[in-house]
Amino acid sequence: MAAHDAGRDAAHDARRDAGPDAGPDAARDAAGAGRAGPISAGIVGGGIGGLTAALSLLRRGIEVHVYEQAQALGEVGAGVQVSPNAARVLHGLGLADELARTGVKPVAWHQRRWDDGRTLLRSPLAEPLEATFGFPHYQMHRADLLAALAGEVPAGRVHLGHRLTGLTDHGDRVEARFANGASVEVDLLVGADGIRSLVREELFGPEHPRFTGCAAYRGLVPAERLNALGLEVTSQVWMGPGRHFVHYFVSGGRLVNFVAVIEQSTWTRESWTDRGSVADALAAFAGWHPQVRAIIEAVDETFIWALFDRAPLERWSAGRVTLLGDACHPMLPFMAQGAAQAIEDGATLAACLAACPSVAGVPDVAAALRRYEMARIPRASRLQSMSATNKTRFHLPDGSEQRERDARMAAGATDWSFDAVAWIYEHDATVVQPEPDATLA
Question: 202 and 225: one domain?
Fold first, then answer.
C-alpha cells in the first residue's frame, strides 16, 4: 500500500546506523566506543520496543547499541494505539511534538453492534482522559512512531544487517554473534526480537508460537475516500458473531486504518502474513453494517495476518540476558496494549538498571534484571490474559450471552470502560518501587 510505504520510508530516512556492512572489528569498536557509564547494553531488535529501550537507557547514562537484522528500519502492520501509559514514557523521551504532529487524539472508544450499528459502549478519551491521567491517547501509524523514535537515537547507535546467530553468557559479560561475522561483548543483552525471538530460544529452548484461531485483514484507506461516511475521530470496535472490525484515523488524520478479525481453525500458509483479497474480506463481513463494508470497499489492497501468541513466561531473564515486548509477552491485540507494554518494558528496564546495586564496585546486572522481572511480569501477564479473554467476548454469537455482555457494557462493567482501564493508563513505568530493606524486616 502506497501510503504505508511512504510512512515506512520516513522511518528509513530517520534511522541512525553504523552501516550494515560493518565487519566484526567495526561493530566491536562501535559497541565499546565512548562508554559513558558503568553498564554497556546491546539490544537485539530495532522495532518500537527496542528503540524505546535504547532511548530510555541512554537517558539513564547507560551505553547502548541496537542490532537489527533488516537492512533498513521498518515496522510491519499499520495502526498502533499509544495509550496514556505509553505516551507518558514517550513524552519523557522528548517525542511529544512528533506524536502531536503525526498522531490522532480520538474523542472516544466507541463499541458498536455489528449489524445495526447500535452503540454498546462509548467511553470518552481526548480531554477527559488527558485530564485524568496527565497524558493523551494517540492513534498512530506504526511507521510514524518508529520514525519518531529513530530520529531521537544518536547516530552510530543502530547497526543494520546484524542477524543474531548465537550468544554466550560468560558470567561477567555477554557475547553476541551475528551472521555478518560481527561479534560484540556487553554487560547486558536485551532480546527485543519479536515473537520468533532467537534470544528467547537461546535462553529457554525452542517453543513454537500458538495459532490463536484468529486472522486479521488489515488496510489503510485515504481519509478523503470516506468523507461521505462522516466518520467521527473515534476508535470504533464493531462486535459480531465470530469476528470484529476496528477502524480509526492515523497519520495526522490523512489515513483510516482498519483491522478486520475473523476466526478460522488453522493457518497453513508458510508466512504469517500474506497479501489478502478485498473480495474475501468483504465476503467475511457480508451482512454487516454498511459503514463497515464501505471502509473495506475503499481500500486498494489488504494483507491478512495470522495471530499467534505464547503462554506467559515465569521468568524473562537468565544471568545477564533478558527479554522485552513480544519476545516475552506476545498478546492478542484485543486490549490495544501490545506496543504500549513493550514501551513500558524499556522504561522499567532502564529504571532498574539505573538503580543497579553493586557488588565490590561492580554493577550487579543479574539483580537488576530480577527486579525488572518482578516489576513487569505480573502486569504483562495480566494483560496477556485479558487480551485473550476479549477474543471470546468480542465474538459472541447473538443470543443470551451476547445480550448479557451488552448489558454489562452499558453498565460500564467491562475491560474497556473508562474506570476499568484506570489501572492500565495511570501506570508510570519509569518509576520502580524500592525493594524492601531486609535489615528492617
Answer: no
Cell for 244? Answer: 470484529
Residues 216 and 277 in one domain: yes
41: domain CATH number?
A: 3.50.50.60
Per the structure, the complete domain to which residue 253 belongs is given by: 104-141+209-310+391-425
What is the CATH classification number for the domain harbouring 238? 3.30.9.30
CB neighbour burial string for 30-66, b if at least 16 within 10 angstroms, e if fewer: bbeeeeebbbbbbbbbbbbbbbbbbbbbbbbebbbbb
State how far the alpha carbon of 233 is from the alpha carbons of 86, 223, 225, 406, in Å.
Answer: 20, 11, 15, 23
* Global confidence as pTM: 0.87
Which residues are known to be catalytic? Answer: 248
pLDDT tens digits in sequence order for the chain, 441 residues long: 433 333 334 334 443 444 434 433 343 344 333 333 479 999 999 999 999 999 999 999 999 999 999 888 876 668 999 999 999 999 999 999 999 999 999 999 899 999 999 999 888 888 888 998 999 999 999 999 999 999 999 999 999 999 999 999 999 999 999 999 999 999 999 999 999 999 999 999 998 888 889 999 999 999 999 999 999 999 999 999 999 999 999 999 999 999 999 998 888 665 667 889 999 999 999 999 999 999 999 999 999 988 988 888 899 999 999 999 999 999 888 888 999 999 999 999 999 999 888 877 788 999 999 999 999 999 999 998 888 888 888 899 999 999 988 888 877 655 555 677 889 999 999 998 766 543 333
Mark whether 325 and 403 lie in a shared domain: no
Indicate the DSSP class of residue 414: S
Question: Would 99 be classed as within a structural domain?
Answer: no
